[in-house]
Amino acid sequence: METLEIRQATKADFDAVIELCKSTLAVTYGAFLTAESMRPYIEGDELDKYVRGRLGSLLVAVDHDGISGVVAIEDDLIGQLWVAPERRNEGIGAVLLAAAEALIRERGHTRLRVEVFEPNIGAIRFYERYGWTRQETYRHPLAGVDMIRMVKE
């Protein structure tokens, strides 16, 4: 993998982060979420609100192609970890995950959390590969899909 810079997102990154998130949503979640449930994020302003409200807690992966991945950190929770679909399997997600884990631990948390849609088998295997374990399953109240809460000590 070429040189990859991990840094905090800035206001100048907003449009690129939104574009990456929208492309990732469609590819990743389109297999198990309805078009209707994704519409407010892909066509509406829900994703804009999500990113704008968390811009200070986002880390981005940047290389010669621009932003290739993003991770949202909320206290001890990895809120989202998205890698551009065309850049998957290049190690970008692993680098972002390691940076997020380190930052969460630097902030004093000893237990880390992430929540993954149960049908997103690739994401579940990704986290398990890096030492995360399944804690519980629950039904997402809006999406109507089971979620798996995973933890790492």
CATH class annotation of the domain at 5-108: Alpha Beta
Helicity level, as a percent range? 25-40%
| Strand elements, count | 7
* Rg from Cα: 15 Å
Described by strand count, sense and barrel closure, the largest sheet is:
7 strands, mixed
CATH homologous superfamily title of the domain at 5-108? Gcn5-related N-acetyltransferase (GNAT)
Number of discrete helical segments: 5
How large a portion of the residues is in β-strands, by DSSP E? 25-35%
Report the CATH architecture of the domain at 5-108.
3-Layer(aba) Sandwich
Overall outline: globular
What is the first-to-last residue Cα distance?
28 Å
| Overall mean pLDDT | 92
| Poorly predicted ranges | none
List the secondary-structure elements in sequence, H or E: EHHHEEEHEHEE
By CATH, the topology of the domain at 5-108 is Aminopeptidase
Query: Structural class, judged by helices and strands?
Result: alpha+beta
> Which strand order does the major sheet show?
1-2-3-4-5-7-6
